[in-house]
Design a protein that fits this description.
heterotrimer; A mainly alpha; B alpha/beta; C mainly alpha; A: two-stranded antiparallel ribbon; 2 strands; disordered C terminus; B: 6-stranded mixed sheet
Chain lengths: ~325, ~260, ~300
C-alpha cells in the first residue's frame, strides 16, 4: 500500500498511538473515540471520491450503535459478535437505503441523506418506551473474546480491536480505490455520462460505494457504543453528520490516512479546548477549517502527502 | 404515419448492422427527426452532413439510446433496441465518441482505457488493482493504434484537444464495438491537424474491422474517408449514396454545403 | 377530536408556521442569490433570539417604557441579522463562490460552529426566556379557545407582511429586480451591468435579518438554550427542501404545511410531532426532489 515513505509514516503513527496509550492510560478513551470517528470519516471519504457528500451518514453509526445496545441488553453476546452485528446491520441498512439513494446527485443526495437521518433521530428520541428516548440506552459491558474483563482490561482489548479494524479498513479502502469499482466510482465525479457509454452502470457502482460507506460508519458506531456503554439519539443528529464531513476535509479526503489524522486532531483539540479554552473547541476548529479551505484544501494529510511519494518516473498517479 | 404494413413491407434487411424505421421526434415546434428510414451495412464508412439543427446529432442520440423517439424503431444487428439505455446499447456493440470529448479528466490516459476495458472483460476481481484486473496488452495495443502511447501516464484533462478526441474514440474502441459512431471527430482541431487525426482514426477502425458513422462538416475529409454519404435536411435524409454523387446533388449543394 | 382542539391546533400551526416561514425565507433567499446553502443561518436565528432577549432584559433593567418591548424585537433582528449577515457575506460567502460545492458547505458549517461557541461564550448555557412582550399584549378568545394575541395576531401578521413586502421589493423596485436577475442567472446579470457583489451583500443582509427576526420573534415564547440554532437550522432546511430551493411563495406553503402537520400531530399522536417535518421532507425528496413548487428538474438519474 502506497509508497515506502507512507508505510513508514503510518507505522510511526501507530507506534506513537500505542506508546501514548501505554504511557498515559487515561488517553485510551479519547483514542478509541478518535478511531471510531475515523472509521465513520473513512466511510464519508468513499462517497467524496464519487464527488458526493452525505449530510446524514451519522445515521449508520447510530443504527449500529443501537443495534449493539439492543443486542447487548437482550442477549449477552460477546463484544466481537456485537461489533460484527452492528456493522452488518448498518451495511444492510445502507444496502436498502442505497437503492433509493443512488439515483440522486449533488445537493439532493446530501439532502435526502439528511432527511433520512433526521427521521431516525426523531424516532429514536420520541419512541422512548422502546429506544430509551433522549436519555438513550445503557447496556452492560459484554465479554471480550469470551473473557469477562474489568473496565481497564476491556478498554485495552477494545483499543486493540479498534486499531486493528482501523488499519484493515484503511487498507481495504485504499485497495478499493485502486480497484475497478473504486476507479469507476471516481469516474462518477468526472463524467458519469461516459461511464454509461462504456456500458458500466454508474448506479450500481455508486450503490457498492454507498454500502461500503454505511458499513464503515457501522463499525465506527459499534466501537463507539462499546466504548461508552451508552447510545443516544445524538449519535445520529445532523450536526454529527456534519462533523464527520468536516473531519474528512480537515484530515484530507484524498487518502484513508487523512480520515484518521483528521479524527485524531479533532478529538484532541476537543480534549484540550475543554481544559484550556473553556471548551470552545468548535471555535478553534471552525476557524482552522475556514483557513484550511483557502490555504490547504487537500487537508492536513494532503499537505504531507506530496512529500511521501517516492521518486517515480513521470506520469504516475495513485 | 407509418403503418404496420408499411413497416413490414420495408422491413430491416437481415444483414444490416444498424437500421431505423419511421424514426420521428420533435422538440417544441422543431422537427428533429421526420420518419427516418435508414440501413447501414457492415463495413461501411458513412459520413453524415447537414447544417446545424438539421437533426444529425438527434439521430445519433436516438440510435445510441440517449433520446427516446416519439415513434419509430431502431434495430441493431437484427435486434430491436428502441428505448434501451445508452448503457444497454453500448453493451450490444455500439461505441460512441462525442463532439466535446467525454473523458475522465482526473484519470490518466491509460486509466481511462483500463476502465473502459473493465466493462467488457469478465475477469473483474473485486480487490484487484485496475491494471491487474484488465488485459493491459489490449489497452496498450489500442493506445498505439491511436498514437497515444507517449501520453499514457498523463491526465486526460491535460491533453490537447486533438489527443482528447483520439482518447474519446480509444475508450469506445477498447469495448470491441461492431459499430462506431463519431460526432464531429475533427471539430475543434486546427485545420492542419484534421487530416492526420482522421487518418489515424480511420486506420484504427479498419484495423479493428469496425463499421463507422461520422458526422462531419469538412467536405474534403468526407470525400477522402467516406464510402457513403448521407445528407440531412430538416430532420430527413435528403440524399444518400456515394459521396461524389451526393456532393453533386443540387439540393445538397444548396442546403448543406452552401456556395 | 373536538372543535376546540381543532381550532387550537390550527392556531398553533399557523403561528408556528409564521416563524418557520420567516427563517426559511431568509435561507431560501440566500440560496437563490448565491447558490450556497448557508448552514450558519440557524446561528442567525439563535443570535436574533438571544439578542432580543438581552434587549428585553435591558428595557426592564433601565426602566424604559414597556411598550418598547415589541419594537425592540425588530431592532434586534435588524441589527444582529443585518450585521452578522453582512459580515458572513463579506468575510466568507463572497470568497467561496467559485469553490467546490462540498467546500462551500463546509465553510458555512464551520461558520456555524464558530457562531455556536461565540453564542455560548456570550450568553452562557442557562436557558434565556424573556416573555414580557407576550404578557403585555394579553390574550383573546376565538371560538371559546383562549390564545395569546402575540402568537395569533403578531406572528402571522409579520409573516404576511414579510411575504408581501419581499414580493413587492423583488418585483417592483429596481434593486429588487436586480436581485431577481442575479437569482436567475448570475453571469448574465453581471454582463448586463448589475453590481452582483452589492446585490449579494444586500440579499444576505435581508436574508440574515429574516432569520434573526424569526429568532427574535420566537424569543418571547421560547426558551433559548445552546443547540436551538441547530434545531431550527435543520427544520427550516426541511421547509426549504420541501418547497424547492429558492422558492419564496413555495416556502410559505411548505411552512404552513409543516407547521400544521406538526401542530395536529401534537394533539393526535404526540410521538410523531417531531417526526412530521422530516417525513414530509423524505416523501417530497423521493417523489419530487426539486421540491413541490419548483419549476426546474432535479439532478436525478
Amino acid at each position: 500500500m502506497g509508497s515506502p515513505r507512507l508505510r513508514l509514516l503510518v507505522a510511526l503513527l501507530l507506534a506513537a498511538v500505542l506508546g501514548l496509550c501505554i504511557a498515559l492510560p487515561w488517553i485510551k478513551t479519547p483514542v478509541l473515540l478518535a478511531l471510531s470517528n475515523g472509521l465513520a470519516v473513512l466511510g464519508v471519504i468513499v462517497l467524496i471520491r464519487a464527488g458526493q457528500v452525505s449530510f446524514g451518514h451519522a445515521m449508520f453509526a447510530c443504527l449500529a450503535g443501537y443495534g449493539v445496545a439492543f443486542a447487548g441488553r437482550a442477549s449477552h453476546l460477546d463484544a466481537l459478535l456485537l461489533v460484527a452485528l452492528g456493522s452488518v446491520g448498518a451495511a444492510a441498512a445502507g444496502a436498502l437505503i442505497g437503492l433509493f439513494m443512488v439515483r440522486y446527485r449533488g445537493i439532493f443526495f446530501g439532502m435526502l441523506n439528511l432527511a433520512f437521518s433526521m427521521v431516525l433521530f426523531s424516532v429514536l428520541g420520541k419512541f422512548g418506551a422502546i429506544t430509551g428516548g433522549t436519555d438513550g440506552l445503557r447496556f452492560d459491558r459484554p465479554t471480550f473474546a469470551g473473557q469477562a474483563l474489568e473496565r481497564e482490561g476491556f478498554e485495552t482489548a477494545l483499543l486493540g480491536l479498534a486499531l486493528l479494524l482501523a488499519v484493515l479498513a484503511g487498507l481495504a479502502v485504499q485497495r478499493y480505490f485502486g480497484s475497478v469499482n473504486g476507479q469507476a466510482l471516481a469516474a462518477i465525479k468526472s463524467n458519469e455520462t461516459r461511464l454509461e457509454y462504456l456500458g458500466i452502470s454508474a448506479k450500481r457502482v455508486f450503490w457498492g460505494g454507498y454500502v461500503l460507506s454505511a458499513a464503515l460508519c457501522g463499525i465506527g458506531g459499534s466501537l463507539f457504543a462499546l466504548t461508552q456503554g451508552l447510545v443516544t439519539p445524538e449519535m445520529g443528529y445532523w450536526v454529527r453528520s456534519g462533523e464527520v464531513v468536516f473531519i474528512a476535509i480537515l484530515g484530507g479526503s484524498g487518502h484513508a490516512v487523512g480520515a484518521f489524522v483528521g479524527a485524531f486532531v479533532f478529538e484532541f483539540v476537543k480534549l484540550y479546548a475543554a481544559a484550556l479554552l473553556t471548551g470552545a473547541w468548535q471555535l478553534v476548529l471552525g476557524v482552522v477549517l475556514i483557513v484550511m479551505v483557502f490555504a490547504a484544501p487537500t487537508g492536513l494529510f494532503g499537505l504531507v502527502e506530496k512529500h511521501l511519494r517516492a521518486k517515480v518516473p513521470q506520469g504516475s498517479k495513485p | 404515419m407509418k403503418t404496420a404494413a408499411h413497416a413490414a413491407a420495408h422491413a430491416a434487411p437481415p444483414t444490416a448492422l444498424l437500421s431505423t424505421r419511421g424514426l420521428s421526434l420533435s422538440f417544441g415546434g422543431v422537427v428533429a427527426a421526420d420518419g427516418i428510414d435508414f440501413d447501414l451495412m457492415p463495413g461501411e464508412r458513412l459520413a453524415v452532413v447537414g447544417q446545424n439543427g438539421a437533426g444529425k446529432t438527434t439521430f445519433i442520440n436516438i440510435c445510441t439510446g440517449y433520446l427516446l423517439p416519439a415513434s419509430g424503431q431502431v434495430f441493431f444487428a437484427g435486434n430491436e433496441v428502441t428505448g434501451q439505455s445508452p448503457r444497454q446499447i453500448t453493451r450490444l456493440g455500439v461505441g460512441r465518441s462525442f463532439q466535446m470529448p467525454q473523458v475522465f479528466v482526473d484519470h490518466t490516459v491509460r486509466q481511462c482505457l483500463m476502465l473502459a476495458a473493465s466493462a467488457v472483460q469478465q475477469r473483474r476481481g473485486f480487490w484487484l488493482p485496475l491494471d491487474r484486473a484488465v488485459d493491459v496488452h489490449e489497452v496498450d495495443a489500442t493506445l498505439e493504434l491511436l498514437q497515444l502511447q507517449d501520453r499514457a501516464g498523463d491526465l486526460a484533462g491535460a491533453l490537447p484537444e486533438g489527443q482528447r478526441k483520439l482518447l474519446d474514440v480509444a475508450m469506445a474502441l477498447v469495448l470491441r464495438p461492431q459499430l462506431m459512431i463519431m460526432d464531429e471527430p475533427t471539430s475543434g482541431v486546427s485545420s492542419d491537424e484534421k487530416h492526420p487525426l482522421m487518418a489515424v482514426l480511420m486506420r484504427a477502425l479498419d484495423e479493428r474491422k469496425v463499421t463507422s458513422i461520422f458526422v462531419e462538416h469538412d467536405i474534403d475529409i468526407v470525400r477522402r474517408y467516406a464510402t457513403r454519404l448521407a445528407a440531412w435536411i430538416a430532420g430527413k435524409i435528403a440524399a444518400d449514396g456515394a459521396p461524389d454523387e451526393v456532393l453533386r446533388d443540387p439540393v445538397v449543394i444548396k442546403n448543406v454545403i452552401g456556395e | 377530536m373536538d372543535a376546540s382542539l381543532i381550532v387550537l391546533a390550527l392556531m398553533d400551526g399557523v403561528s408556528y408556521a409564521a416563524l418557520l416561514f420567516l427563517v426559511a425565507l431568509g435561507l431560501t433567499l440566500i440560496f437563490g442569490v448565491m447558490r450556497i446553502l448557508n448552514i450558519a443561518h440557524g446561528s442567525l436565528y439563535a443570535w436574533g433570539g438571544y439578542f432580543a432577549a438581552t434587549l428585553g432584559l435591558a428595557i426592564t433593567q433601565f426602566g424604559l417604557p414597556a411598550w418598547l418591548g415589541l419594537p425592540a424585537l425588530f431592532v434586534a433582528a435588524l441589527v444582529i441579522g443585518g450585521l452578522l449577515g453582512t459580515l458572513l457575506e463579506w468575510a466568507l460567502l463572497r470568497r467561496i463562490l467559485d469553490k467546490d460545492p462540498i467546500l462551500q458547505l463546509l465553510v458555512t458549517f464551520a461558520a456555524f460552529m464558530v457562531l455556536e461557541d461565540l453564542q455560548r461564550l456570550i450568553w452562557g448555557t442557562q436557558p434565556v426566556f424573556v416573555s414580557d412582550v407576550v404578557n403585555q399584549l394579553g390574550t383573546l378568545q376565538v371560538v371559546g379557545v383562549t390564545y395569546t394575541r402575540y402568537q395569533l395576531l403578531v406572528l402571522p401578521a409579520v409573516a404576511v407582511a414579510a411575504f408581501f413586502g419581499l414580493n413587492w421589493f423583488l418585483n417592483r423596485t429596481a434593486l429588487g429586480r436586480q436581485v431577481t436577475a442575479v437569482t436567475h442567472h448570475r453571469e448574465m446579470a453581471t454582463a448586463m451591468g448589475v453590481n452582483t457583489h452589492r446585490v449579494m451583500g444586500l440579499t444576505i443582509a435581508i436574508g440574515g435579518a429574516l432569520g434573526a427576526l424569526g429568532g427574535a420573534l420566537a424569543s418571547p415564547t421560547t426558551s433559548f438554550t445552546p443547540g436551538i440554532g441547530a434545531d431550527m437550522m435543520v427544520l427550516s432546511f426541511a421547509v426549504v427542501a420541501t418547497a424547492g430551493l429558492g422558492q419564496i411563495g413555495g416556502a410559505a406553503l411548505a411552512a404552513l404545511m409543516i407547521g400544521l402537520a406538526r401542530s395536529f400531530a401534537v394533539y393526535l399522536m404526540p410521538e410523531v410531532e417531531v417526526l412530521m417535518p422530516y417525513l414530509i421532507m423524505v416523501g417530497v425528496l423521493l417523489l419530487r426532489p426539486e421540491g413541490l413548487f419548483s419549476t426546474v428538474a432535479a439532478r436525478r438519474i
